[in-house]
Design goal:
- This protein is of the alpha+beta class.
- The chain has a domain of 78 residues: S16 Ribosomal Protein, Chain: A (2-Layer Sandwich), CATH 3.30.1320.
- It is 31% helix and 26% strand.
- The chain has three helices and five strands.
- A five-stranded mixed β-sheet has the order 4-3-2-1-5.
- It is elongated, with a radius of gyration of 23 Å.
Length: 119
C-alpha cells in the first residue's frame, strides 16, 4: 500500500483549514485517512507558531514506514527539522510569459523606429 503524508481540507468556503494526515495514496483528498498527524491553518500569520502543528513522533514513524510527504507537507517537515531540504528546480520561474515578451518586442521596435532618421 502506497502511503502519503498529505493535507486534507476542512473549513468553510474561503476559510480553509487543513489536517495533516497519513493516508493511502489512492484515497480521495478529503476522504478516508489512517491517522491525523497535525494541522495547518493558512489564515494565521507566517511567524505564528500555531500555524503548523505536528505530532513529531508519529510523523517520524510514518516516514520510517515509507510514507512519502507531498510537496507542501515536505516544506513543513523541512521547517520542523524532520526532513532534509531538497533543491527545487523550477527553470521557468522568473521567466516572462508570451504576452510580456510581445510587449517588450513592440516597445523595442517602437523605440528603434523613433531613433531611426527620417529620410
Amino acid at each position: 500500500m502506497a502511503m502519503k503524508i498529505r493535507l486534507a481540507r476542512g473549513g468553510s468556503k474561503k476559510r480553509p483549514h487543513y489536517s495533516i494526515v497519513a493516508a493511502d495514496s489512492r484515497s480521495p483528498r478529503d476522504g478516508r485517512f489512517i491517522e491525523k498527524l497535525g494541522t495547518y491553518d493558512p489564515l494565521l500569520a507566517k511567524d505564528k507558531e500555531t500555524r503548523v502543528k505536528l505530532d513529531v513522533e508519529r510523523v517520524q514513524y510514518w516516514l520510517g514506514q515509507g510514507a512519502q510527504p507531498t510537496d507542501r507537507v515536505a516544506r513543513f517537515l523541512e521547517a520542523a527539522g524532520l526532513a532534509e531540504k531538497k533543491a527545487r528546480s523550477n527553470p521557468k520561474q522568473g521567466q516572462p510569459g508570451k504576452a510580456a515578451l510581445e510587449r517588450a518586442k513592440a516597445r523595442a521596435d517602437k523605440a528603434a523606429a523613433a531613433e531611426a532618421p527620417a529620410e
